[in-house]
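Table 4 source record.
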Amino acid sequence: MKISNKALFFLSMILLFPAYASAGVSVYAEGAYTDENLVVYIYADISDDPLLSYGVKLVYPPADFGSPVVVKNTTAWYFGDPDNPYPAPNAEPDVSTAGEVIIVGGKLDSTDPLEGVSGDRVFLAKVTFTRLTNNAPGAELYLGKGTPYANFVQVDGTNLDTTLAGQDKSEPIGQVTIFKLGDANGDGYITSSDMFTVRGTILTGLYKCYMDCNQDGYITSSDMFCIKGKI
């Protein structure tokens, strides 16, 4: 598929537009671990103008984890026709450096280049690690790439990088919350209270990954039985 001049213009804005502070997005991650693995889900709450792009770096202790496997959200973030998207430039996750995962993405719909992505709890990517030690799992979130790359850019060209990471773009951009799989209420223990948390979550449909005890992608009564087996 040929990229139009209009599309190329907006791509260049994503990469080169000068940074200045603005509100509009919060980024965070949630993780669940077992004795064998750690799974981290990265999200963004986009409450102002829609975003055209994002870029995150998940930093982790390489001695504790094996090589990460990354799955990106290509349903919300794509380039071209949503039914027949074309490969996005330089958008493959970068896991070449031990201790960090760089994930970038964007949305440039060829039928509406300024549509962007907005909403709460917008899924960016899932990162799965094999655990190599029994150390308490931990990770941090930073901007995906440094200057002159613009990571979080709104549809009007506003670059949010300095808002998220400070003027030198070196500060963490969001919290990473990690609990043991089955610790549904996140209090550091697996007890009957976690079963009640899951029961309440079934009614709302809003859940954290560590509540999904059987890791099937849904919160159901099966997760309550799974937690019971861990108590």
